[in-house]
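ARCHIVE CARD
Drawer: 12
Card no.: 0347
Subject: one protein chain, sequence and derived structure
Cross-reference: see card 0346
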Amino acid sequence: MRNIYEYPSLFIKGTRNPPFCKVENECYHISMRESSEFGYAMIENSLEKVIDIDYSRVREDYCLEIPWLGKALKIARGTPLELTEISAMKVLLVKREGDYVSKGEIIAHTITVKDASRSIRAGSEGVIVFIGSRSLSNPEAYVVAVADSDIVEWFKRS
């Protein structure tokens, strides 16, 4: 049986694209009815919409629905992040969004142009709140964003 990777769904505050994510009372729900809360955005090209890479901060409030956990996380604009940029001919991520990581824990393995392998470790302790890829980059390039676990808000699906 083949494993199918499930991508998280990204909802950015003020975005007017359906579906919409509403969070309240420790729960979230997804609806096609327009909401002033969080609208859908394609995660594949949203790295720089939600993460200020130069200042290592969240650029816009967002919710990330993580289907394999059955939860969504919410993170506020201005939240400081520890960013790890990973670039190699082949990147094998071993941690995903929503995972708690300790400082020094392996988050990815890479294979370089010279066929050498390397382990990439987390630079801080916290929750992975976003993994973004740099579009059309060769070699592969990812940014893994980690936030202090006390700052991340969690919601269960209602």
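Annotation on reverse: The two ends are 31 Å apart (CA to CA). The longest helix spans residues 47-50.
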